[in-house]
Amino acid sequence: MPMIFLEDFSKFLLFLHLVAAVVLMGCLAHNLLIVVGYWRGKFRKKNVEKRHVKMAFWAYLVTFLIGALVYPTFRVRVRAEYFDESVPWATGLFEVREHWSAIGLALFIAFYFLRGKFDPETEREKLFLYTALCYILNLIVWYCATVGYYLTTLKSV
Questions:
Q1: Scanning 3, 63, 83, 105, which has the fewest C-beta atoms within 10 Å of its C-beta?
Q2: Residue 2 falls within a domain, yes or no?
Q3: Domain of 20, in residue numbers
Q4: How far is CA 12 from its chain centroid?
Q5: Using N-to-C axis directions, what is the helix angle for 124-156 and 88-117, rounded to 10°?
Q6: H or E segment and range at residue 23
Q7: How many domains in the chain?
């Protein structure tokens, strides 16, 4: 059986992928709570919110990178050997998850740079776009995390 790139480390990498995703979900959720407060005129936590964006950005990149490192093992050992044979709909679910995470990466770059360039207290027109991106990224990240967890349980049971 041929060796797959980083296969020996795949379980550890998958665990790191999980940890990075939890950090990401926490940062984004806290960010969203603060951004909702902006619409109520609460701007005390602007610096905290900006730190959440930076941490979430790096957590997204790390999560994405680790996912890419685990992908070859997943592609052969889980998808080809298990999902495609036993639960083909799971392959489709993973494909959708992959596409959303790639779209999320592009949106996250826009989100990160937008936050660095405006003051939510004085530039309300940009706050609308920023808030929309915040909600969308939360949906994408929580969807990807939920699907990732669900698919992991299919193979582990």
A1: 3
A2: no
A3: 7-156
A4: 19
A5: 150
A6: helix 10-38
A7: 1
